[in-house]
Each structure stands twice: as structure tokens, then as C-alpha cells.
Design goal:
Blueprint lengths: L7 E2 L2 E9 L1 H5 L6 H10 L5 E2 L2 E10 L6 H20 L4 H8 L11 E5 L6 H8 L10 E3 L2 E11 L2 E2 L2 H34 L5 H7 L4 E6 L15 H7 L2 H5 L7 E4 L2 E11 L2 E2 L2 H35 L21 H5 L1
Antiparallel strand pairs: 1-12, 2-9, 2-11, 3-8, 4-5, 4-7, 6-7, 10-11
Length: about 350
């Protein structure tokens, strides 16, 4: 009777609840084959690896404003080099090192690397995109002089087929739809549990949610229930609110974790009660026994201490020990036993 709080069973509720989360949205979002095909066709460049060309060239300098004699000499030299290349096409790099007047590429055999659209003047670019792999152009005149161009490699453009990217496209489209649909459904969930507060069935039917039941919930989260949505402190506070307990109304929509909402309704409320004496009798007897044993031990100790002080008899005590502020010597077993 003096310790009623030790034997009190806290108030509890049995509740219905519905959870709205990403899984609820996903169940209502579909992506058709037609949508996937339409997206693929509109974004086909994203699934295409462009053609890649590498080229080499030999340049014989001859600016356009050079005198006719200089132009003629440069052209004659270029024709001579071209003849040498056509005679020994496999030696293009060696000929370029020896004959090309382009100081940037000559040391590497005339290599221009991977060609990108717009990187070269138009006559040169056109000549690079005209031949087949391994072919050598004729003389190409530009503002810099005369070029001899070899297409050293050609990797054709490759387009991934729809079948290879269909699943990825569908997943992306579904994610986009879910993001938009989540906001709409979350608003519906929040409004319906409040406006139709007599039951969770309307919102469950509307959004395809499952009404579930949980028993023995208390005001405070139960560690044994872990991170279950109904074991959330905010939700429990709403569930034990006056309107929910007395009027059996739905709780507000409570966000228990990112993008997870829950609403509940009290089905049964059990007030706090005291456990029957018969149920806790053995526990009380054990506790009282320990308390009495401690009281008796203290009384006996105080009696012996008083007697020792009165008589001055130190029998039963251990020998003197030196104790410093920084460390205590280990207690011997004889003294410890005493």
C-alpha cells in the first residue's frame, strides 16, 4: 500500500493504424511500354555513342597571301610528298616526321588524335570525314598550306537498342511519377484522416492502404518494439490525446520518419491499474527480506563498533597500513576477510 507506484500497470490502448509511405505510392504508379518507347525516341541521342575518328596529316606551309612562286613551290613539294606516301602508305608516320612542317604534330608522325567537329578549318575537316579507314586524301588546300590527310581509325556510331535500356528508362520514369504522386497522395492522406475522423476505412480504401491493429501500447515507446511506426513518441502522444481516447477519433497524420506518415485510432483504452497483491506477493517478500537483512546487518555492525570503541580492543582488525592520496596498496586477503 505504501509503494503503489511500484506495482502499477500503466494505461494502455489497443489501436488501429494505417501507414502511408513510398511503397503505397509505388503500388499505384505504373509505366507503360508506350511511355518507355516515347521517351527513348525523344532522347535517342542519350543512348547513342557517336562516331569517333582519328587522323594524321602532313602539312606543307603556304599561306594564301604568299607570292605565286612560293605557292607553286609549296604545291610541288606537297605533290612530291603525296607521291611518296602513296608509294609507301604504311610509312605515313615516318614521312610525316621527315617532311611535315606542322611543328605540333610532325614529331608524333602527324597524329591529330581524336577529331572533334569544329576543331579544324573546314577543308581539313571535310577531308577527314570523307575517306574510309586507312585511306589517304589528295592534296587539301587551306589557309595554312597544303595538307595530306590519313584517316587512321574509324569507330562507327553505336546506338543501344530499346531492349537494352528499357528497364532503366522504366525505373527513371517511375521515380519521376512517384515523386509527383507522393505529394498528391500525402496531402490526401493528411486531409482525409482529419476530415473523416470517425474511421480509417475511407482513407485506406482511397489510397489502397491496409488497416492494421496493435495492442498494449503505452504512452512511452517500448524499446522491444524498435523502430515500428506505431512505437514513435510523436504518434503515441497523439494516440493518447484526449480527442483520440475519449472520442475515438483518428489522430492527425504524424511523420514518424522521412516520407512515412501514420494515423491511428483507439479501439480500446485500459486505465492504469495496480497489480493484485497475489501476483506480486513473492517479489514483495524478497524485497522486504533484503531490506530487513540490511537493517539487521547495520545494527549488528553499529553494536560491534560501539563495543570496540568502549573497550579499546582492536582484536579482529587488520594491521596498520600506509595509505597515500595517490594510490592505495592492495588489500591483503586476511584484512579483507576481517
Amino acid at each position: 500500500d505504501k509503494n503503489a507506484q511500484l506495482f502499477t500497470i500503466p494505461e494502455q490502448v489497443k489501436a488501429e493504424y494505417v501507414v502511408f509511405d513510398a511503397a503505397a505510392v509505388e503500388a499505384q504508379v505504373q509505366v507503360s511500354d508506350a511511355e518507355v518507347s516515347e521517351y527513348y525516341n525523344k532522347n535517342v541521342k542519350s543512348y547513342t555513342t557517336p562516331e569517333q575518328r582519328t587522323a594524321s596529316h602532313i602539312l606543307i606551309n603556304a599561306p594564301r597571301d604568299a607570292k605565286p612562286a612560293v605557292q607553286a613551290a609549296a604545291k610541288a613539294k606537297a605533290e612530291s610528298v603525296l607521291a611518296e606516301v602513296r608509294k609507301n602508305p604504311a610509312n605515313f608516320a615516318e614521312i610525316a616526321k621527315a617532311q611535315s612542317q606542322d611543328q605540333g604534330s610532325a614529331p608524333s608522325g602527324g597524329d591529330l588524335g581524336v577529331v572533334e567537329k569544329g576543331a579544324f578549318v573546314k577543308p581539313v575537316e571535310d577531308a577527314i570525314y570523307a575517306p574510309k579507314e586507312g585511306e589517304v586524301s589528295g592534296l587539301v588546300q587551306s589557309e595554312f598550306g597544303y595538307h595530306i590527310i590519313k584517316l587512321t581509325s574509324l569507330t562507327p556510331s553505336v546506338q543501344k537498342p530499346l531492349a537494352a535500356v528499357k528497364d532503366d528508362i522504366a525505373a527513371d520514369l517511375k521515380k519521376q511519377k512517384m515523386s509527383k504522386r507522393y505529394s498528391e497522395m500525402a496531402e490526401t492522406f493528411t486531409n482525409m484522416v482529419y476530415e473523416q475522423s470517425e474511421s480509417l476505412k475511407p482513407v485506406a480504401d482511397k489510397l489502397g492502404l491496409k488497416i492494421q491493429t496493435v495492442d498494449n501500447l503505452t504512452r512511452k515507446p517500448n524499446p522491444q518494439l524498435g523502430d515500428a511506426p506505431y512505437n514513435n513518441e510523436k504518434f503515441l502522444a497523439a494516440l493518447f490525446g484526449t480527442d483520440a481516447v475519449k472520442n475515438k477519433r483518428n489522430t492527425e497524420a504524424v511523420e514518424v520518419s522521412p516520407s512515412v506518415l501514420i494515423s491511428g485510432r483507439v479501439v480500446e483504452f485500459t486505465p492504469a491499474t495496480k497489480r493484485p497483491l497475489a501476483e506480486v506477493d513473492a517479489m514483495i517478500r524478497q524485497r522486504v527480506t533484503l531490506e530487513e537483512a540490511m537493517r539487521l546487518a547495520r545494527a549488528a555492525g553499529e553494536q560491534k563498533l560501539a563495543a570496540a570503541k568502549a573497550s579499546g580492543d582492536a582484536s579482529g582488525f587488520g594491521g596498520p597500513k600506509v595509505v597515500t592520496p595517490t594510490a592505495e596498496p592492495p588489500m591483503n586477503t586476511t584484512a579483507a576477510a576481517a
